[in-house]
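This section describes the prediction task in plain terms. A model, or a person checking by hand, is given the sequence of a single protein chain and must write out its three-dimensional structure as a string of tokens. No templates, partner chains or ligands are provided. The sample shown here is typical of the held-out split.
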Amino acid sequence: MTTSSAPPLAQATSATSAMGLPPVGQTNSGLDSPLRQVLYAFRKEFLIVGIFSMVANLLMLMPTIYMLQVFDRVMVSQSEMTLIVVSVITAFMFGMMAFAEWSRSRVLVRAGVRLDDQLSTRVFNGVFESYLRQSKENPSRSFSDLTELRQFLTGNGIIAFFDTPWTPIYIAVLFLLHPFLGWMAIVFVIIQSLLARLGHSQTLAPNEKAMAAQADEMKFLQSKVRSAEVLEALGMTQNLQQKWNQKRRDSLRAHGASQSLAHRMTGYSKFIRYTQQSLSLGAGAYLVILGELTPGAMIAANILTTRALAPIDMLVTSWKQFLSAREAFRRLEKLMVRFPSRDRALSRMAPEGAVRLASVFATAEGREEPILKGIDYLAPAGTVTVVLGPSGSGKSTLARVIVGIWPNVGGEVLLDERPIGLWDRDELGPHVGYLPQDIELFDGTIAENIARFGEVESQKVVAAAQATGLHEMILRMPRGYDTPIGEAGRILSGGQRQRIALARAVYGDPRLIVLDEPNANLDDVGERALMQAVSLLKQQGKTIFLISHRPQVMAVADRLLILANGQVQASGPKDGVLAALQKATTP
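The expected answer:
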């Protein structure tokens, strides 16, 4: 039994390689993805678990040794003292085995918590950027992928990988008892291994199909229930339900096929396991009849054979969980490779607000013609640019390009002559104000929404509300600034939502402010408040882009940018542009 010192490293290696990780001891140069680097950092924990597995599996031999001592020594010698001593030693060893198993489980659980702590923020950022860049994949499942990976790494599945390398040692002990028992165990190991291989090849495609169908069903439903009021008002609920029912049936059909195959493989595994237990006992009895084995060795061999095949049987049982965890690992790896963490070393000082667009093109997936076509424009710091143009001219896309949230952009978008993509978003965010055309408020209080869900600084919140003419309206609400607005601000009117979003855009000290149709839902009072707010921000030296269909907003403009069909029709100082347009239209 001198070879027992090697398995801990081998177990840790097999456990890590099962999830696509490099072997323990490999240098960092072999790690080609952020997820692998994070998991590689847990190699010490896997090695510790391997050591505890070595202790537990060595002590698993105690039932065999105890059986041999009781049947072949105690019952022959009739010595009560020998029975007591052997029983006490065995009980102590069982206690050590239980401690080793508890310890490895505790190490895995703690490692799982640490893994979640290290990956949760990166997965959140990756999912956020995936939505931001309008990825075709379904990033929302990444959180369940992280949970699935963590549960596999702390559950029975990974323990089976640590226990499997000990199967040859148990078989070696069987050979010591009798070669025939050892060869029988090898035959059943081969059968179980072939069954595991067959289970992999047979269940992989149906399992992936079932998961894809379930994800498609949930994605369809989630995308539609966000517009529940429209569905109800237009009587579209029944039509939606019929489409969802079809997707639900497809999902259940695929899931049923996958489960049926998995249960069939489990049934085969149980048949082989029960057959093995009976045949090994029968073979032991036959050897006892021939006088080649003692009764104690017969019972011990039966227990040892069952123990030798237990890890393989566990692998077969947990194979579906392993496949799911492996797919979750691949999806998370792909997410983290596509959306890596931003380099914190690229942090900058607060921007002045000068914006320059150089040959900017903006495209969208599924659309052949670019939305923006070679936009060149310069907005000096502290100026107000009013962007005009008909619907579909690319104004809203331009707003997103300027604040750096449009995914498919060519050319250069420079803030203070630095590409906006190189600014750290968490650092740049407080210096940017953005009011999208489609208002998005969040479940929380008015103050939390204005303060961007950061620390609520009362003076800044009130200042932003006063600057947008919102303060008196808020004070008339039941709980003032602490009034909850519900999901997406459902208790507010369209004008109220827009004005709160405007206050959020000017909260703090933003240097660059982009307002996309800020007066779309405002009444006359709200529009006057908007013009006053823009004038105040202009006096404070903010760089402002104001997008609107209404020509009266030109009163606050320093410069004009007029778009048509994604191209610049006219741009420059307001008076010059207006004069040029008037001249062009004069017969």
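For orientation: The chain has two domains: 2-338, 348-585.
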